[in-house]
Amino acid sequence: MSSHQTQSSSCCQKILESSKQSGIISHGALSVSHQEAELFRVSTLKDSDSLFDLASLTKVISGLTLFLIGKNKGLWNEESLVGNLLPHAGNNVKDLSLKELFSHESGLPAWRDYYPFSGREEIFASVLAENTGEEKPLYSDLGFLLLTHIMENKTGKRVDQLWEEWGLQKEWDGLRYPGNFAPYSSEARILPTKNTFQHRKGLLRGEVNDDNCFRMDSASLHAGLFGNLTSVRNWFWALKTGGIAPVELVRQTLSMGNSEFYLGWMKKTGDSSNAGTKFSKSSYGMLGFTGSSFFFDPERELLAVFLAHRENPTHDFTQIRKLRREIYGQMAEEFDKG
Fold first, then answer.
1. What is the pLDDT of residues 53-73, one digit of tens each?
2. What sections of the chain are H helices per DSSP?
3. What are phi and psi for residue 201, nearest 5 degrees?
4. C-alpha to C-alpha distances, 103 to 98, 154, 266, 286, 315, nearest whole angstrom
């Protein structure tokens, strides 16, 4: 490492340790890479490649990956309509396109409590009967529940099975849904989260934190994937360079969208963004409820993967947002020094 990289690594390590001591996160790990090469990584863990619950990072890692592979196979594309892929769809959702679902322009509600439901089929039936009158764009788990149903109906396979067949590769072996954690079966390699919402209160290890995903047998595109630093980093660079789907298809995802989202990706929106003030305006990535995130700055060709489990006594995200901005800002500032 250069002296600036060493300084950046040291500063980021101190930020992580301080955040753990002050109770913002229970654990955290950061990987910074430039043009595919990792510059440094820091972690509060002895094993920096332990598995974190990635929560909504699932939307882009599993969801967008499976979409692009399926598009390349000719199964669907961004203009495909829900009603053509799910003939039993209700009148309010049948005319939605996959593009609207991926870019959170469907008008579907952000969230519903499906934990009292009997399982995935009852949940799917409820989403198909939803109204689409919410403001647009609006970040929506329901859009990705609908995408889950579409892909499963079209392929005849559950999305966790589809991920194993289409998405999972040796280079990102750590990106796994619950039930298939080998070779990460040791409890020490699977970090617990805290769920303090309405239902499964307590410490969860190897169980998805998201209650709705848990009710769907832990297999969905809105949440469910676990992962580690190396796997998230390797997956991203493979996607960007054509190792998963043709580069042109990946680039197209960044040419569609709205003020807040591309096709599947979350944009950096102003200086209040979780990516902070230093990343360029063209940066994009994703956030997860449990605390993890990643952002890519195309002007610097710089990727930062910050995996964390935030302490969760409440649903106040102020501290984790501040921590993200500090981490991403520190890392980008030191990178620019050379």
1. 999 999 999 999 999 999 999
2. 3-21, 57-58, 65-72, 82-85, 98-102, 120-128, 141-155, 159-162, 211-215, 229-240, 247-253, 318-336
3. -70, 135
4. 9, 21, 9, 12, 24
The CATH number of whichever domain residue 283 belongs to comes to: 3.40.710.10
| Interval 111-131: pLDDT, tens | 999 999 999 999 999 999 999
* Amino acid of residue 264: G
- Residue with token string 């200086």: 271
pLDDT, one tens digit per residue, over 5-19 is 788 899 999 999 999
Residues in contact with 2: Cβ distance below 8 Å, sequence separation at least 6, in sequence order: 338
Determine whether 58 is exposed, middle or buried from the number of CB atoms within 10 Å of its CB (0-12, 13-18, 19+). Answer: buried
**Cβ atoms of residues 261 and 60 within 8 Å:** no
Q: Which residues pair with 303 in a beta bridge?
A: 33, 296
Number of domains composing the chain? 1
Per-residue confidence at 52, pLDDT binned at 50, 70, 90?
Answer: very high
Q: Which domain holds residue 241?
A: 3-336
Q: Per 3-state DSSP, what percentage of the chain is helix, strand, and coil (rounded to 5)?
A: 35, 15, 45
pTM of the complete model: 0.97
